[in-house]
Backbone:
């Protein structure tokens, strides 16, 4: 198994005919993703040739779902149109919308995440690298060839740190890696992923990557104490970030005493999560814990 | 982006929220003339994007125009928590009967905005919330419905505010939505002895991501206290100046933040945050290096790239081209991993610049950059 995305997932790409959309659709296909269509109202009826596969373009998400049975959409449309694109996908009844677009106004993210929740559509992102179930499917821009299928579940606010940990732990491999995005408002949280990994029989250990800003990691810690029995290894970025300065991600800002890396690390450690000092150190902790898990007698 | 008090005030006024009469200036002589226009007695307020102005002496009452000039001279140029006062606002004093607090803030956890209101305004709301949480109402606002008159009445009722504040609550929501703000706060909202409601002070944070549909924006100056930050911003670089000696360039906000931490863990202090983002071009690389090398505090530079979408050979080409444009005077430690890393490393090996060295791990590279910063 895996979480949210498997080889059965049938994927639409909103914005497939744009430069980024085309480039990443090619990569997704190469990673084994079943990309069943693109969506562009002005190019309905056309098709895009990706070497060994021709992908049709539909005029709407609803058409795409009707024609192909799609259940996932990956959104590459520009920020000004992202809200309408996600609302359209939710209205069409898509199960999962992965919003890669960076720079979406927060009011739009508030509107479409709230709308999607009412419609029963899961949103991953916005401003995220997407998610990958190695060897099965890749929805987004995570490079597929730096890791393989395995037993670790990974959830992260940061794209490049996701890649770094995937690379460090490539010999063990991953069930699913989810990049939830670094914006202040995201559709899928650390907690959503922890819950799904806890229930996923293929996931033996969970890696949680956080960063400064907000209190998502503190809330994740509280959730872990109550609901997660699988081992969790954490990493937090931003110990050196000064107060009041935004560090790249729109959500990465320390305000007053809130949102510090120190507070997040302390909250995670208080519930028994091992927290690494560097990405490499974090990977080392994972290897040690996996050895322990393997040696412990099974009840 | 945070606005100055006078900018926030202008937005309130534009949306029909009453404010005291006031004017802004950077000149003490002009302050005297303004005080005369406002009737003599004025409150002189430092315009800085930080809290605690009052305690720092940045808000003072002047009883006549001569005192206003003297007070403005004293406040202009003051340093308040690292912010230099460039302008003062002079406002007509208000005869206050009672003070309230109203704000809309983003509740990140819930993914929507929250109305926060209290009949105990004028002081540190966080303190009130900590000591007497029941005195602060926190009401979620459904994004699809917004703040209607009925919703505003509910908020006012929950906080124990007089019913006439409902109109201000509706208008303040309009400011939030129409201006694409992440935070609007009026503290204090006051009722005068004549029974008028006035926004005495306020705070607005705008969403930089919404610039594309906020056509008027760009008029406000983005304050860069640091000349290097101004130079970096002009080149479109995502750069934050810090006070250490190891310059850091990397791809992706999370990885760069992590790099700063790892450098600090090696006993050195990072000099900056610089994220070249995805698909780094030679141009971006050269611009980034130029900015970092022009910081006299920088003793060594650490380039940390994990190629995902970004190809490491393209980054290496960028570094090589940058070396042709920028005279490198400080040691550069480069760690390339991921997409096309082997080709990238080969490109740098071929260039064989005496001040450029490569490392195979992030931790090792950080250690080396820290050592070089201490010895050079």
Residues:
């Amino acid at each position: 198994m895996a979480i949210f995305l498997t080889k059965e997932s049938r994927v639409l790409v909103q914005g497939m005919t744009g430069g980024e959309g085309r480039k990443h659709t090619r990569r997704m296909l190469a990673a084994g993703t079943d990309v069943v269509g693109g969506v562009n109202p002005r190019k309905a009826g056309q098709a895009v040739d990706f070497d060994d596969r021709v992908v049709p373009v539909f005029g709407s998400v609803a058409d795409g779902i009707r024609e192909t049975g799609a259940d996932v959409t990956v959104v590459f449309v520009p920020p000004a149109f992202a809200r309408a694109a996600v609302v359209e996908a939710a209205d069409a009844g898509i199960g999962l919308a992965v919003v890669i677009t960076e720079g979406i106004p927060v009011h739009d993210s508030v509107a479409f995440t709230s709308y999607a929740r009412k419609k029963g559509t899961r949103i991953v992102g916005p401003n995220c690298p997407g998610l990958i179930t190695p060897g099965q499917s890749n929805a987004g821009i995570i490079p597929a060839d730096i890791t393989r299928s395995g037993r670790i579940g990974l959830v992260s606010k940061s794209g490049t740190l996701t890649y770094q940990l995937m690379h460090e732990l490539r010999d063990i491999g991953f069930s699913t890696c989810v990049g939830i995005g670094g914006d202040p408002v995201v559709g899928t949280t650390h907690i959503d992923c922890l819950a799904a990994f806890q229930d996923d029989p293929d996931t033996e250990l969970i890696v949680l990557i956080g960063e400064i800003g907000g209190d998502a990691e503190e809330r994740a810690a509280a959730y872990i104490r109550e609901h997660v029995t699988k081992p969790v290894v954490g990493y937090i970025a931003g110990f050196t970030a000064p107060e009041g300065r935004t560090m790249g991600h729109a959500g990465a800002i320390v305000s007053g005493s809130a949102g510090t890396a120190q507070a997040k690390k302390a909250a995670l450690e208080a519930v028994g999560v091992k927290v690494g000092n560097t990405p490499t150190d974090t990977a080392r902790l994972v290897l040690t814990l996996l050895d322990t898990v393997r040696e412990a007698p099974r009840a | 982006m945070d606005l100055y008090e006078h900018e926030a005030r202008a937005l309130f006024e534009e949306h029909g929220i009453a404010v005291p009469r006031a004017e802004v200036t950077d000149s003490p002589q002009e302050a005297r003339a303004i005080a005369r226009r406002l009737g003599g007695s004025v409150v002189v307020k430092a315009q800085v994007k930080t809290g605690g102005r009052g305690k720092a002496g940045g808000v003072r009452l002047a009883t006549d125009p001569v005192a206003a000039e003297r007070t403005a001279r004293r406040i202009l140029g003051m340093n308040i928590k690292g912010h230099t006062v460039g302008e003062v606002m002079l406002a007509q004093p208000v005869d206050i009967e009672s003070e309230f607090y109203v704000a809309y803030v983003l509740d990140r956890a819930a993914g929507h905005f929250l109305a926060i209101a209290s009949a105990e305004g004028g002081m540190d709301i966080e303190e009130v919330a900590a000591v007497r949480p029941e005195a602060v109402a926190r009401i979620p606002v459904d994004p699809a419905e917004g703040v209607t008159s009925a919703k505003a009445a509910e908020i006012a009722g929950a906080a124990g505010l007089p019913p006439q504040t409902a109109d201000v609550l509706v208008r303040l929501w309009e400011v939030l939505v129409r201006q694409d703000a992440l935070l609007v706060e009026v503290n204090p909202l006051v009722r005068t002895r004549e029974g008028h409601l006035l926004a005495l002070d306020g705070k607005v944070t705008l969403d930089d991501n919404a610039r594309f549909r906020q056509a008027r924006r760009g008029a406000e100056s983005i304050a860069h206290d640091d000349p290097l930050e101004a130079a970096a911003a002009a080149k479109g670089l995502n750069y934050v100046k810090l006070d250490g000696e190891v310059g850091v360039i990397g791809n992706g906000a999370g990885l760069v933040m992590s790099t700063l931490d790892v450098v600090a863990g090696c006993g050195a202090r990072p000099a900056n945050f610089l994220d070249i983002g995805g698909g780094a071009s030679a141009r971006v690389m050269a611009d980034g290096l130029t900015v970092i090398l022009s910081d006299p505090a920088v003793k060594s530079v650490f380039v940390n790239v994990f190629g995902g979408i970004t190809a490491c050979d393209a980054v290496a080409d960028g570094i090589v081209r940058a070396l042709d444009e920028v005279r490198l005077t400080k040691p550069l430690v480069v760690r390339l991993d991921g997409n096309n890393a082997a080709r990238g490393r080969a490109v740098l090996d071929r260039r064989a610049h005496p001040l450029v060295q490569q490392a195979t791990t992030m931790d090792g590279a950080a250690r080396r950059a820290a050592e070089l910063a201490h010895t050079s």
Residues 118 and 136 of chain B are 5 Å apart (CA to CA). DSSP finds twelve helices and 18 strands in chain B. The mean pLDDT of chain B is 91. Chain B touches chain A through 52 residues (CB under 8 Å).
